[in-house]
Structure formats: structure tokens, C-alpha cells
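W.,

You were right to be curious about this one. When I first looked at the sequence I had no strong expectations either way, so I just let the prediction run and decided to look at it fresh. Below is the sequence, 114 residues in total, followed by the output.
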Amino acid sequence: MNELLAKLDSACPGLVPDGAEVELPYVWMGDFVSHLIQAHLNGRTFDVQAAFDVIEDEIASNGAFAELAIVGFLEDVQNANLHQQGSQPNDFIRYLGPASTKAWRALNSIWQGN
């Protein structure tokens, strides 16, 4: 498990991936985002914010896993297909920091073809 995934797992515990997913960080991230959405629906806002803080730090520092944070995490959060009833991507905007807000908007721009 890479450093970013380990930090996310610590921030919002409870996801139990199979061994193969740990070696495929983008697959793991999709499962983690689904787990995070469920945590949000269950009112675990502290854990959700902690995970978004990890993402913010990675993007803001342009760390080794910044691309995974943007393309893996934020893009998955924006994917309406991963959301359950009672959840939508915009519910998570309140958890964004400045760097992740900029990345969120850039992804939206791509989705809109701008």
C-alpha cells in the first residue's frame, strides 16, 4: 500500500480491500471513495473531512501521489455512478481545501469540454 492510500485508510478506516486492490491504487481508490460516500451518509463527517485533508495536503504539496489524489480520488468523488441514493458529488464540495477546489474545478471543466 502506498503512502497516500495508507494515510487515507487511517483517516477514514473501515475499508477492507482484497490483496489485489492494494497493488492497483486506482482500483483501491474507487473502492475507498465508495466507502467514503457511505461514511458521509452515515454521518461520519469527521472521517470524511480527515480523508479530504489528506487529499488537500497531497495536491497542495504536489507530492508523489498528487495525480492519484486528483485523477483517482477527486474524479471518483465526481463520478455520480459511484454515489448511492441520498448522495451526490456536490455534497462533498464543503470538504475541499484551496488546492483540491482548484483541481475539482479543473476536472469539471474537462467534463464540460472546456
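Here's what jumped out at me. The chain has a mean pLDDT of 92. And, maybe more interesting for your project: The chain is about 65% helix and 0% strand.

Coffee later to discuss?

I.
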